[in-house]
């Protein structure tokens, strides 16, 4: 077992710290967006006590990323209490909280293997977990689900994600271009170039999962499955749309949060 692997397994009890440079304006803006994503996840009921994670790569420091303090609820996350860690699982600067080992293994894998993806969301919603248990996976039944047609990966369950060796399989199963993945018997993962994009992909995937499960539970006459050509066309049309996921939706989400509770910005 490597020193990094040993450190990851004991991450929530034995955390090393590395001195940090001052937070730049770009990093602070990212911290606000990431804290907002946590608050939105809590708002929509996507949280799981203190578990699951949303992370974002720090601008100007490609080997650093921000993640939630292990022990806080999603509705307690703020821009200032997010934890910065490096690719050796060390905390950069000071934090009153540790980082969960499984969060490091999964998120570090994607940040390392897909440099085009700057934000990663991994959740255990009921709909996402139920979808992950189905052999069929995500079916092209709804318009939302067709956004992911031939553009979603699947990763087999390997137990609690505390083994660094699983990282290579996570990256391989996500693929070189996909921005979403079903973690079998576990949950979902989405990612994007921005926090807003990752959030929108999560929103669409969650809605698609809920719609599919509802249809499967109430389908005495069978399911209407569009032709593969139509599913592919729909995915391609969404892909080619000038409306980049998150570009318009994210400011609207921030306005909603500011009305509800702007403390995420602190």
Structural write-up:
The chain has 266 residues and is an alpha+beta fold. The protein has one domain: Class II aldolase/adducin N-terminal domain (L-fuculose-1-phosphate Aldolase). Helix content is 40%, strand content 15%. The protein contains 9 helices and 9 strands. The strands form 2 sheets. A 7-stranded mixed beta sheet has the order 4-3-2-6-9-8-7, with helices on both faces. Strands 1-5 form a two-stranded parallel sheet. The radius of gyration is 18 Å and the shape is globular. The N terminus is likely disordered.
Spell out the key features of this protein:
7-stranded mixed β-sheet; 266 residues; single chain; alpha+beta; L-fuculose-1-phosphate Aldolase; two-stranded parallel sheet; disordered N terminus
Reconstruct the topology from this structure:
Elements: H1 3-9, E1 17-18, H2 25-43, E2 53-58, E3 61-67, E4 83-86, E5 91-92, H3 101-113, E6 119-123, H4 126-132, H5 143-146, E7 153-155, H6 166-174, E8 180-183, E9 187-192, H7 195-217, H8 228-240, H9 249-260
Helix pairs in contact: 3-6, 4-7
Largest β-sheet summary: 7 strands, mixed
Gross geometry: globular
Overall SS class: alpha+beta
The whole-angstrom Rg is 18 Å
CATH class assignment:
Alpha Beta
Oligomeric category = single chain
**Average residue-wise pLDDT:** 91
Distinct helical segment count: 9
CATH topology: L-fuculose-1-phosphate Aldolase
First-last Cα distance: 40 Å
For the biggest β-sheet, the strand order reads 4-3-2-6-9-8-7
Q: Which H/E pattern describes the elements?
A: HEHEEEEHEHHEHEEHHH
Please give the number of β-strands: 9
| Percent in helix | 40-55%
Uncertain residue ranges: 1-14
Number of domains: 1
């Amino acid at each position: 077992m490597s020193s990094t692997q040993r450190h990851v397994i004991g991450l929530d009890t034995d955390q090393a710290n590395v001195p940090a440079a001052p937070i730049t304006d770009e990093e602070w803006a990212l911290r606000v967006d990431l804290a907002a994503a946590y608050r939105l996840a809590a708002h929509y009921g996507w949280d799981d006590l203190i578990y699951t994670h949303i992370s974002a790569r720090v601008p100007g420091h490609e080997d650093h990323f921000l993640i939630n303090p292990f022990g806080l609820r999603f509705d307690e996350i703020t821009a200032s209490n997010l934890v910065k860690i490096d690719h050796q699982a060390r905390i950069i600067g000071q934090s009153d909280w540790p980082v969960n080992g499984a969060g490091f293994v999964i998120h570090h894998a994607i940040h390392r293997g897909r440099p085009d993806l700057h934000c990663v969301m991994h959740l255990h919603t009921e709909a996402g977990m139920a979808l992950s248990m189905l052999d069929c996976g995500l079916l092209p039944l709804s318009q939302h689900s067709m956004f992911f047609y031939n553009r979603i990966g699947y990763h087999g369950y390997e137990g609690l994600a505390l083994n660094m060796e699983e990282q290579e399989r996570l990256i391989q199963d996500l693929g070189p271009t996909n921005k979403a993945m079903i973690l079998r018997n576990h949950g979902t993962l989405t990612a994007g170039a921005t926090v807003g994009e990752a959030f929108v992909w999560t929103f669409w995937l969650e809605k698609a999962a809920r719609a599919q499960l509802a249809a499967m539970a109430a389908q005495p006459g069978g399911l209407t499955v569009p032709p593969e050509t139509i599913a592919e066309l729909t995915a391609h049309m969404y892909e080619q749309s000038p409306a980049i996921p998150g570009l318009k939706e994210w400011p609207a989400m921030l306005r909603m949060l500011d009305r509800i509770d702007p403390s995420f910005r602190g």
